[in-house]
Every structure is written in C-alpha cells, then in structure tokens.
Write a structure and sequence with these properties.
Length: 159
C-alpha cells in the first residue's frame, strides 16, 4: 500500500482551496437565502395589502347593504407603471388610501372629474421620495379602474 507524501506547500495549497470552497459555498447560500427571504417578504406584504383592502371592502359593502343602496362601488383596481414590486406595492397602498372612501358609494353619486382631480398631478411620498401621479385613464363601474403613470420628483407630467 503506497503512502502519499505531501510537502508543506502542497498541504497549504490543498487547505487554501478547501477554505476557498467553503467561503464560496457559504457566500452562494447566503445570497440565495437573501433572495428567497426577499420573495417571501414581497409575498407577505402583498397578502397583507390584499387582506386590508378586502376587509375594508367587506365593511363598506356591509354598511352599504344596510342602507339599501342599489349599484355601489365594490372595489378599486390600481395599475401603475412601476416595475419594482416593493415600490409598486407601497405606491398602490398610498393611492388606495386616497380613494378608499369610494368603496360602498352609489355609482350615480360619483363624480369622475372629482376623482380625476384628486389623483392627476398629485404628489405622493413613498420612502421619503416624492412621486408625481398622472391619471392615464379612469373607469367608473362596480370596480373603479385607475391606470396611473408615475414620475420620481415633483414635476408635472406632460403627455
């Protein structure tokens, strides 16, 4: 049975590669874990946002049913041109807080010009950063649909 003899330099080189492999593996697993945690946080924030919006919708609809209204607003659908999911979620929550009072109201009592003036040109602050909103289109139905363009800063958006 032959013995393998290593010099001190070869043993240090093997040890260095072993430690380097451990460091690369730990770095990769930390990065992957961070990505997975980020995805879980986005999903959790989305679910909390949807839950709050639905609870609000249910309470307004129950109030509306007690008052015997006919055609009422059942929800608000917000579409933004923001690609970052975190920022999109936070902006949608800020905008939803502006139009939440519309849920449960009669459709006939709504003024689309008033809704337009509330949102178009409005500056909202998300994470201490100002964003200017421009309403692309507004659909007033059982579910109000808003499509908004956003620009970082407080400048007016020109089409």
């Amino acid at each position: 049975m032959p013995f393998m003899v290593l010099t001190k330099t070869q043993a240090l080189l093997i040890l260095a590669f072993f430690v380097l492999g451990i460091l690369i593996g730990m770095t990769g697993s930390i990065l992957y874990s961070g990505w997975m945690i980020d995805q879980a946080v986005i999903e959790l924030e989305t679910l909390y946002s949807e839950l709050g919006e639905r609870d609000n919708r249910i309470s307004r609809l129950e109030d509306s049913l007690q008052e015997r209204r006919y055609r009422i607003v059942k929800g608000v659908n917000i579409e933004l041109d923001v690609k970052d999911r975190h920022l999109n979620l936070r902006m949608a929550n800020e905008i939803r807080s502006l139009v939440d009072d519309l849920i449960g109201r009669e459709l006939e009592s709504l003024d689309p010009k008033l809704i337009f003036s509330i949102l178009d040109g409005r500056v909202i602050y998300v994470v201490d950063q100002p964003y200017t909103l421009s309403l692309r289109y507004l659909v007033v139905n059982d579910i109000i649909s808003l499509n908004l363009q956003t620009v970082a800063g407080t400048t007016r958006i020109l089409d």
